[in-house]
Amino acid sequence: MATDMSALAFLGTNKVGVVNKEIPSAGPCDVVVRTTTSMICPTDVHTVSGVFAIPEGRTLGHESVGVVHEIGDQVTGFREGDRVAVCAITPCGKCDYCQRGHSAQCNGMLGGYKFTAQKEGALAEYFHVSDADFNLVHVPDALSDEQALYASDVLTTGLAGAEAAQVPPGGTLVIVGQGAVGLCATLSARLLGAGLVITVATKADRARMSEKFGADVVLDPRHGDPVDQVKDIVGRDGVDAAIEAVGSRSTFETCVRVTNAMGTIVNLGYHGEGTTAPLTVPVIPFGLGMSDKTIRAVLCPGGRERMLRLFRLLRNGRVDPTPMTTHRFGFDDVERAYKMMSNKSDGIIKPLVTYAW
Amino acid sequence: MATDMSALAFLGTNKVGVVNKEIPSAGPCDVVVRTTTSMICPTDVHTVSGVFAIPEGRTLGHESVGVVHEIGDQVTGFREGDRVAVCAITPCGKCDYCQRGHSAQCNGMLGGYKFTAQKEGALAEYFHVSDADFNLVHVPDALSDEQALYASDVLTTGLAGAEAAQVPPGGTLVIVGQGAVGLCATLSARLLGAGLVITVATKADRARMSEKFGADVVLDPRHGDPVDQVKDIVGRDGVDAAIEAVGSRSTFETCVRVTNAMGTIVNLGYHGEGTTAPLTVPVIPFGLGMSDKTIRAVLCPGGRERMLRLFRLLRNGRVDPTPMTTHRFGFDDVERAYKMMSNKSDGIIKPLVTYAW
Amino acid sequence: MATDMSALAFLGTNKVGVVNKEIPSAGPCDVVVRTTTSMICPTDVHTVSGVFAIPEGRTLGHESVGVVHEIGDQVTGFREGDRVAVCAITPCGKCDYCQRGHSAQCNGMLGGYKFTAQKEGALAEYFHVSDADFNLVHVPDALSDEQALYASDVLTTGLAGAEAAQVPPGGTLVIVGQGAVGLCATLSARLLGAGLVITVATKADRARMSEKFGADVVLDPRHGDPVDQVKDIVGRDGVDAAIEAVGSRSTFETCVRVTNAMGTIVNLGYHGEGTTAPLTVPVIPFGLGMSDKTIRAVLCPGGRERMLRLFRLLRNGRVDPTPMTTHRFGFDDVERAYKMMSNKSDGIIKPLVTYAW
Amino acid sequence: MATDMSALAFLGTNKVGVVNKEIPSAGPCDVVVRTTTSMICPTDVHTVSGVFAIPEGRTLGHESVGVVHEIGDQVTGFREGDRVAVCAITPCGKCDYCQRGHSAQCNGMLGGYKFTAQKEGALAEYFHVSDADFNLVHVPDALSDEQALYASDVLTTGLAGAEAAQVPPGGTLVIVGQGAVGLCATLSARLLGAGLVITVATKADRARMSEKFGADVVLDPRHGDPVDQVKDIVGRDGVDAAIEAVGSRSTFETCVRVTNAMGTIVNLGYHGEGTTAPLTVPVIPFGLGMSDKTIRAVLCPGGRERMLRLFRLLRNGRVDPTPMTTHRFGFDDVERAYKMMSNKSDGIIKPLVTYAW
Question: Chain B 142-171, CB below 8 Å of chain A: which residues?
């Protein structure tokens, strides 16, 4: 039986490569999964650009599904060979944050994000899942690996954004940015009953995809300040909620400005790239601090139970994120896949990586 | 019967004076109240300093109680001579914001704040209450004018802050600033079951008052960064919620930094004085935009129903804000009272102004 | 100008007829509407059967739209000739219940239901709308009278049921009963993101309609206890929520039994017909009183703001209840329409009644 | 080292006795605690009366604190000798119910209640705690064993009731029954800011205790229907919430009748004694199924995080349940203590049982 495997690893700032490693082993509460399919995430690219301090050689990736390879003796819900998935966020389920329902912040700020950031990632032939009875989930036969992968990261994140927006049934919202997470926020805003979904997209292909994913109106920021464009549609008060899905200071400000005085601004974008300058909240649209606006910074919670509900949504045709799978690769070609994600070339959104077994 | 009255009016930037005016008259849905007692608010001072554009001659004030003098023919709940109070916020009860429960933002941003900002204020021998069946409330015999006045502004605002903080029973919070609103937030945080209430106060007399109002610990910012002081007490993760009750950019940042990754920051402070620079949200303590932190900008809702509940709290001894009444004046001395508020002299917190009838 | 009009009136238990009446006039805060289209509701039939004590001659109906005929001088948002609708529930917007957001219970139990129960109904050539600035809403050009009528009663009620069910995204629910309100609950459960919607319908045509409206599975209670049938699908724990849309004691019990131990039971059905026996909660499925189950009795809230959101949902194609319009009549034929509703003949669900002007 | 211990065991319907048993041992995720202090609960008495099917010889009890005796090798948060407590509810932290925050219903109906019901209880010299990193909590030096014990059951249950009642600040509520849980609901209703707390108590000593615990008014049901008595105080609409803390069908009905049409009924009482007849909901006060009333059946959630907050409340003087400790025993006298609880003799509320080491 093989004891080593291939993995896509961080090899220093802006360098990655496939390396050989030992197959991980499972502690008593853990599971090791043999990977069948993975996706690559912009967060992998952020990580490789040096945003988080991680050791050289650390395996990348947090979007992988597969079959159970090894099971810790305290794990009760799984058997070898079971087809399984896991959320990109893998909380412990026990700390104060988890017990209060904020499992994304397991043990403290962003602590639920463990793959790559705190331990070996999942872009490898095998990967390790901690606290498996909390985190691991069976993939129903009716779902493809590809569908399950969407549930593990971008869809659950987009949905978390739409949930946090708390738009009442028939209410209005704007989603700024139509990358993979923004598109999933669009899908999810429709799923949860928003009455008007306006999106802001800069590229023509994303604009088309945005419409396909449920946007009623797609705005092009080159045609004028999106805030003005939105208010031309909904009136001067603005919308009930705005979701920031870009990760820039200016789009964050746009979200504060475009919402009405009972509105919610949800931040999904990652604001760590290139600067640690603060986010800025313009005071006039913030009512000099006395509007009833709410700003939420959101990372999706982890755990099996949420994954099960996402699987049900996928299986019963409520949402279909698969049009975002723009490219497909074998794992032997994963470096090229990574490079395309890094360069954002050929309109790539999500590349699907399959493993030959 | 007299047709004119005295009122404390705005006479140009940083100028006020008692002027003679006609007694207001009530439209069909309104009531005119003959004032028996008023208080002066720092917001009056902000207004006189030129923050809002209001016409010269506009009556100041929004904290007054009295007896019903004239009643519009559509008003059903009141009779002449009834002892009544009204919240500083007087929403219409009908617009979309009011119907969604955000009456402070009646008809749009901060629109529930009408006295002085949109119409004649209440620091006068008579004042006009719009939408009386929504806004006016009977004062029970068991309550003094002074108690009722607290319910009309600072107490309801402090309580709105504590409610928005959503601290779970036994949770922890910090209140930065112990002016009148900050002190009422302290009272209210205790009222709602916080397990540890830490306040930050710069003056010794406010620190003493803060303890009296329920603070478990009062921090002096001159003894080091309050964030560090708080974390020395509760641990490195910080507190469940922080309430900004100063109105400065630095204390707002303190609140973002001092909260844990599931924490809530409530802004009660007024950020319009002297600058329209944006509020700043430091990105590291905001989890690069992915912490589960929530920031709420809060203005208390108006309406009779809430006032009734505040009256019950006062009557049944749940809260006692009256130690904040540091000074007492007759209305003939109201200019001096205003000047003391303006200069913050003699440790003044709330001056009580009584009318001789 | 005409001063009298035709109206469908209650003429004693189980008797109705078209009578001649004076056209109503508007008080200062009210509006009188000239009716263009109405629908008849099973509640009209309940009323005529003697459930509520109403005077003979009282006009029936609470589902009508039309154009503004007369406006009170305190009403600000409308002009003569405006095309308008109003919810079946017409709260005052000012009482404690309204101020707390429970406008269906305006001034006390069920008090928001005023048409027919407390004042003249709306199945007439003209009808009176109280507190028009709170209740009346403009109908957008893009909406038909028929669409607007659905928003005024069955759709808003079904949606209130789905909202109260608080099913998490991707969660499961059962809706027992697929009459007009049950069908709208089905539409609404899909709208709000349920992952699995199971309905229980006794008639074949309703079962087909239920599928059309979004049910994933439609159960026939003649094929066995619906609780067993549901548990065969979702497992022994049951579903996240159940909505009672029949109005019988046994279906209420079914809802308690079919929900899991964190589940919500929503009652939409009317339990006043033929008996005042109590509803019964079986103790074993209620965890001997210690399950975490929640039971909610729901009547839709009224008000313009909610209607606006419903209109947005209809206009933007989120929901389409119009397949329920099974029959169409002129107002001169309204007695026949009423009789068909009363007899539930010819598979009638909602009859549309148009007025010749 | 001793390998056996004494335990108070169920010896058949209505029979208990101290028996000798092996000291339990800890699995990898568990801890064994050497008991220092226990309390006895009415639930123990219910259990012995034959309500749950448990094997003869099963150790009773679920309110015990002590020091860590043995630690499983996967447990990270504790060391031998640590002073610890645990909630009466000991959920797994991993199942769907736990992940959704309903840990009292761990793995299904009432499944979080494990001591005695599913495994050996805690009225023994040693007891076993499963999923220790989720459930076990350090007792701060500042807290007595006695205080910690209150947090483990009656206080957390009473608080869960007050939380579920969702009384707005200054709102009104009634608590029917002033046994240990009812008294803790009274304490907790005050803690969370209710404006008027009315209790119903049948015994004079409980009435006195109820006042001490914060009741504004204590009603004697022998002086007339409590519903009438309450409405004499608050008006005909009734109160915002009612908590059932007796466990009888008639008091449950009282709670439905005494609440207003936006009110919440919380059931804390155990309805399994002597009958499995259904609970009954009178339809008129339930608005024929269309009031906005909510009925919640509540069992307190388990877990360390909640215990920590309860400890903070006790330590900082927010609540003091210790006046309920009416009797004290050594463990060698535990059979007598049990008998007194069983007979409710000498006004016993909570007996404290200490172990001689």
Answer: 168
Contact residues on chain B for A290, CB-CB shorter than 8 A: 104, 110, 267-268, 270, 297-299
Tell me which residues of chain A, numbers 282 to 321, contact chain B at a CB-CB cutoff of 8 Å: 282-299
- Nearest CB to B169; choose among D168, D192, D195: D192
Segments of chain B assigned E as strands: 4-10, 16-22, 31-39, 64-71, 83-86, 126-129, 136-138, 172-176, 196-200, 217-219, 239-244, 259-267, 279-281, 294-297, 325-330, 350-354
**What domains are there in chain D, each with its CATH number?**
4-153+300-354 (3.90.180.10), 158-297 (3.40.50.720)
In a structure prediction context, what are the per-residue pLDDT tens digits for chain D, which is 357 residues long? 689 999 999 999 999 999 999 999 999 999 999 999 999 999 999 999 987 789 999 999 999 999 999 999 999 999 999 999 999 999 999 999 999 999 999 999 999 999 999 999 999 999 999 999 999 999 999 999 999 999 999 999 999 999 999 999 999 999 999 999 999 999 999 999 999 999 999 999 999 999 999 999 999 999 999 999 999 999 999 999 999 999 999 999 999 999 999 999 999 999 988 888 999 999 999 999 999 999 999 999 999 999 999 999 999 999 999 999 999 999 999 999 999 999 999 999 999 999 999
- Inter-chain contact D94–A133, Cβ cutoff 8 Å? yes
| Shortest Cα distance, chain A CAs vs residue B221, angstroms | 22
CB burial of residue D77 (10 Å; 0-12, 13-18, 19+): middle
ipTM: 0.97
Q: Which chains touch A (3 or more CB pairs under 8 A)?
A: B, C, D
- Assess D101–A contact: CB distance below 8 Å, yes or no: yes
Chains interfacing with C (3 or more CB pairs < 8 Å):
A, B, D
Q: Does D90 touch chain C (CB under 8 A)?
A: no
CA distances from B157 to B143, B183, B245, C155, C260 (A): 19, 10, 10, 37, 40
Give the chain A residue nearest B98 (alpha carbons).
Answer: A262
D184 CB-near residues (< 8 Å, 6+ apart): D150, D154, D155, D157, D158, D159, D213, D321
Paired strand residues for C353: C38, C329
